[in-house]
Automatic annotation (TrEMBL):
It is an enzyme of class 2 (transferase). GO terms for molecular function: glutamine-fructose-6-phosphate transaminase (isomerizing) activity. It comes from Actinomadura livida. This is glutamine--fructose-6-phosphate transaminase (isomerizing). The keyword Transferase applies. InterPro entries: GATase_2_dom, Ntn_hydrolases_N.
Length: 305
């Protein structure tokens, strides 16, 4: 979520965020996490590598199991203050769910020339292929997500971001925040893994896997959504608030770009649309446009998705 400073009541958006976290359990219960970002008072955390935070203005909480077990009501004051919040539920495709370093959102330290990021990934990509083509620092855990985050940490603009995204082979939906620009969120849908963007009538911006969750959030919270859009494969967005002197800016789309995603022939799996209604699944399938490779080591061969 990116919170609008013009919302009459912070609690309405916070309720949506918690509701989305609970609903996301249908896509994974191996581990869960949330990160408060934005530099508002009360969000100080420990240094990178401590497992509890990522520096001033950022706090990351992760735990094994369900989001509903991680979430507790005493976190509400922090949630209500945070301008940006990332949440994640995990189904462990790569990396043991018992290892805390494999849980997301993941705080990835800065590499040479890059800014530290806090990030989350849904999907399953060929991490070995990435490591064979890029000189990456040692990983803290054993997930396929971490090498992607290490590459994205060094991206200074949309061209660099889409360059990284086009090298991914497999399923991926990503959300990440650079620590030196905590009110900007980067969102990307590569091959298959779904990603939905919503804006409520108070101009808070949200993202989640399943569009159905926003319809359920309207039933169970005070929020009303002005737009709910499933992103097409190969879409990159930067959303947030530009800091301009003397202005309180509302969240908006700051940049967009398109790229060509690549999936393996084994990635097409009905579990991609776990929890989707038949209509939502049909709509999303109709817009697939990734290319397919037989093996990650081979050059991509364009085929029908």
């Amino acid at each position: 979520m990116v919170r609008s400073p013009f919302a009459a009541d912070a609690g309405a958006a916070s309720d949506v965020f918690v509701t989305l976290g609970m609903l996301a359990e249908e896509r994974g219960t191996d581990s869960a996490g949330l990160a408060f970002l934005g530099g508002w008072p009360g969000l100080g955390g420990a240094a990178f590598g401590s497992g509890t935070g990522c520096g001033d203005g950022c706090r990351v909480l992760t735990a094994r199991g369900r989001f509903s077990a991680l979430w507790r009501t005493e976190l509400l004051p922090e949630l209500d203050r945070a301008p940006v919040v990332l949440g994640h539920t995990r189904w462990a495709t790569q990396g043991s769910p018992a290892d805390p370093a494999n849980a997301s959102p993941m705080a990835v330290p800065a590499g040479d020339g890059g800014a530290a990021i806090v990030a989350a990934h849904n999907g399953d990509i060929d991490a070995g292929d990435l490591r064979s083509r890029h000189a990456l620092p040692p990983a803290s855990g054993t997930t396929d997500s971490e090498p992607v985050f290490q590459l994205l940490a060094g991206c200074a603009d949309a061209t660099a971001v889409t360059g990284v995204l086009e090298t991914l082979v497999g399923r991926a939906a990503l959300a990440w925040v650079h620590r030196d620009r905590p009110t900007e969120v980067h969102l990307a849908r590569a091959a298959l893994s779904p990603l939905t963007i919503a804006v409520d009538t108070e101009q808070n911006i949200y993202w989640a896997s399943n569009p159905r969750w926003f319809r359920e959030a309207e039933e169970h919270t005070r929020a009303r959504f002005a737009t709910v859009v499933m992103l097409r494969e190969g879409t990159y967005l930067k959303v947030g608030m530009e800091r301009r002197p003397g202005r309180r800016d509302r969240p908006e789309v700051l940049a967009t770009a398109n790229f060509r995603p690549t999936a393996r022939d084994t990635d097409m799996d009905d579990r991609v649309w776990t929890g989707f209604t038949p209509d939502d699944e049909q709509c999303d399938r109709a817009g697939l446009r990734h290319r397919v490779v037989q093996r990650p080591s081979e050059a991509p061969v364009p085929t029908a998705a």
